[in-house]
Amino acid sequence: MARAIARVQADWEGHLGEPVGEITLSGLPSALTHLLPDALRELADTHPGIVLRTHDVDLAEHEFAGLTSEVDIVIAHSLVSARPAGTEGLTVVPLAREPIDVAVADAHPLAGRASLHPTDVVDRQWVGVPIGYPFNSVLTSIEHVTGRDLDVVQRIRDNRLIEAIVASSDQLALLPRYTTPRNAGITLIPLTGVETRRWVVAVMRPDTAERVAVRRVLDALKRTDEGRASPEAGTPPSR
Q1: Which burial class, exposed, middle or buried, applies to 28 when counting CB atoms under 10 A from its CB (0-12, 13-18, 19+)?
Q2: Could you tell me the domains of the chain?
Q3: Are the C-beta atoms of residues 108 and 187 closer than 8 Å to each other?
Q4: What is the tens place of the pLDDT at every residue in 98-125?
C-alpha cells in the first residue's frame, strides 16, 4: 500500500511538472561533508520546491538501516559491500567511492612515504573506531594480512577528535581522503595490500524511493561526487 501511495505521489509531482515537498535525510558526518553542501546549492537553484531537512548521525554499519523508518534517505557507508549490513529488503543507491588513508602527524617518520603496506604499520599504535564501524574492517584486514594483532589504544567516533590526537602524537589512524582538512597538522598516505575504498550509499524504503523529489535529491548528491572525481580530488593532502 505504501509503495502504491508513493507511486501516486510521484505521478502527481510529474503532473505538476516540478517535484515539491519536504525530504528528510540522515547520515554520517564525513559523507555528508563531502556530498551535501554542493547538493543543497544545486537543489536551491534547480528544484526550489524541495525542502531538504538533514541531521547527522554516526552509527555502526548495521544500524543505519533502522533509520529508514524515521527519515526518507539514510546516507550510510561500508568498506565491504555496496550494500551495507542490515539493508536487505531496502533500496540502496551508490553515491560515491572514497579512499580511506592512513593519517600520521606531519612530523611522523612515515609522513614522507608515498604509500604504506600493512607490514609498515602493524607495529604502530592506532586510534581506531568502535567495533562494528566500517573503518574497523581495514584494521582487521591489516591484522589478517600480517598475522598479528594491532595495538589500538583509542576507539573514537569523531574524526575531528581523531585528527587532533594524531596531529599531536605518533599514533596512526584511518581518515577519509576527501573531507579531512588540508591544514590539520596531519599527512594522509594511501594504504596498499588491503581494501581501503568505502562505498557511500543512500538507503531508503522501496516506497520512498518511488518519489520524484527523492530521486532529484539523489541525483544532486551523485553529481556532487562526480564533480569531485578528478585526479586532484583523489590525491591525499600533502604537508
Answers
A1: buried
A2: 1-97+200-227 (3.40.190.10), 98-197 (3.40.190.10)
A3: yes
A4: 999 999 999 999 999 999 999 999 999 9
